[in-house]
Amino acid sequence: MMWMWFGLAVAQEPYSPELPNEERERFFMPAVEGGVLFSADPDLGPGLTFRTALDWRLRRIRAPFLRLSYDATSAPFVQRGVLGAGSLTSDLSTDDVVLGGGFRMGPRALQVTATMQGGVQIASIPTIETQGKDLVIGQRSEVYGLFVAGLGLEWYFDDDAALTVEGTGRISSRRGLRGIAGGVTVGVTTAL
User: Which of 55, 147, 172, 191 is the most exposed, having the fewest neighbouring CB atoms within 10 Å of its CB?
Assistant: First the structure.
């Protein structure tokens, strides 16, 4: 449904002096964006997130856009019931690749963004097994479906560059509440 809405917006776009002159001016890329992610999973602590994304904008302001994002997150993970140790803490890392659309609105200097994206989450999960009296530490990868919704602010200190703050909520196909998380990132975006 969102793709139909985006297609209609593009097809009915009238001429505007705010339209970029060159196609490359439609692309914006947050070069550096970092933040924290909190999970509803009781065994997963707050994680640090690094994000990079590429936006294709119909216009620079007050218009729909497409976004391809990559997020890398690392968080402390507690494994309970490990024989002989009770519980052990290690790091769980995820790589998220999502694609979707959004809308940018507001005055020229301070834009509000709303996004909806879908994609995959690749989780590297630490494993601990017992073999006799020994503990064997390993790792397994799992792939989940992922939906991300975000609400952000962009403060433009230049025509081509802005400081960004974005809050996101995410739901992955992991079972139960374990797949629900939310976080905040801060960064910089600029035209290519």
Answer: 147
Give me the pLDDT at residue 85, please.
Answer: 60
What is the distance between the alpha carbons of residues 107 and 169, in angstroms, rounded to a whole number?
25
| Cα 11 from Cα 103, distance rounded (Å) | 16
Angstrom distance (rounded) from CA 142 to CA 122: 6
Whole-number Å distance between alpha carbons of 100 and 68: 7
DSSP 94: E
Could you tell me which residues come within 8 angstroms of residue 57 by beta carbon, excluding any fewer than 6 positions away?
20, 26, 27, 28, 63, 65, 104
Residue 163 gets which letter from DSSP?
Answer: E
The residue count for the chain: 192
φ and ψ at residue 174, rounded to 5 degrees = -60, 155
pTM above 0.90, yes or no: no
Which token pair is 40? 């509803």
pLDDT one-digit tens code per residue, 62-96: 889 999 999 999 999 887 766 666 677 888 899 99
Is the separation of the CB atoms in 35 and 79 below 8 Å?
Answer: no
User: DSSP secondary structure string, 114-160?
Assistant: EEEEEEEEEEEEEEEEEETTEEEEEEEEEEEEEEEEEEEEEEEEETT
